[in-house]
Amino acid sequence: MTGFELLAQEGLARRGRLWLNHGPVDTPIFMLVGTYGAVKGVPPEMLARIGARIVLGNTFHLWLRPGLEVIARHGGLHRFVNWHGPMLTDSGGFQVWSLGDLRKISEEGVAFQSPVNGDRLFLSPEVSMQIQRVLNSDIAMVFDECTPYPSTREAAAASMELSLRWAARSRQAFDREDAEQSRLFPARSVGTAPNALFGIVQGGMFEDLRDVSLARLVEIGFEGYAIGGLSVGEPKEDMLRVLAHLTPKMPQAKPRYLMGVGTPEDLVAGVSEGVDLFDCVMPSRNGRNGWLFTRFGDLKIRNARYKDDLRSIDPTCTCPVCSPSTHGDDRPAFTRSYLHHLQRIDEMLGAALASLHNLGFYLRIMAEMREAIAQGRFAAWRVEFARDRARGID
Question: pTM, whole model, 2 decimals?
Answer without folding.
Answer: 0.96
